[in-house]
Amino acid sequence: MKSVPKSNAAVLLESGLTTLSSLLPLFDSGGGSFYDLRHVMQPTRDQPVVSHSANTPAFGPISNLDAGPNRARWDYHAVHIRQLRILAVVDNSERAEKWLTTANRWTSYMVGFRSPHN
């Protein structure tokens, strides 16, 4: 069977799914999901972190700590779960199991399960 070259869109999709698979654990709060990754990303001058304190600088690690993680509300958390379940169906790769496992764990957070801690 002759191999068909991947389109640019297919290459970009594969790259995006690979990146999401790598970063997905950073979205897990242990009891819900994060809306974004501002708690692990350094702000840029173009996108400063909104600080809750007038005395905190708009840039740098202190501003990240002051703003804190952006935890997803339960309705957004439910959207994240639906997105992962859809990915588990449409992504024909070894990642499909990771999408489903994460979706199942995140579903359990909605009924009180929390990840263990030390």
Automatic annotation (TrEMBL):
<dbReference type="InterPro" id="IPR039721">
    <property type="entry name" value="C5-epimerase"/>
</dbReference>
<dbReference type="GO" id="GO:0030210">
    <property type="term" value="P:heparin proteoglycan biosynthetic process"/>
</dbReference>
<dbReference type="Pfam" id="PF06662">
    <property type="entry name" value="C5-epim_C"/>
</dbReference>
<dbReference type="GO" id="GO:0047464">
    <property type="term" value="F:heparosan-N-sulfate-glucuronate 5-epimerase activity"/>
</dbReference>
<feature type="domain" description="D-glucuronyl C5-epimerase C-terminal">
    <location>
        <begin position="7"/>
        <end position="42"/>
    </location>
</feature>
<dbReference type="InterPro" id="IPR010598">
    <property type="entry name" value="C5-epim_C"/>
</dbReference>
<protein>
    <submittedName>
        <fullName>Heparosan-N-sulfate-glucuronate 5-epimerase</fullName>
    </submittedName>
</protein>
<dbReference type="GO" id="GO:0015012">
    <property type="term" value="P:heparan sulfate proteoglycan biosynthetic process"/>
</dbReference>
<dbReference type="GO" id="GO:0005794">
    <property type="term" value="C:Golgi apparatus"/>
</dbReference>
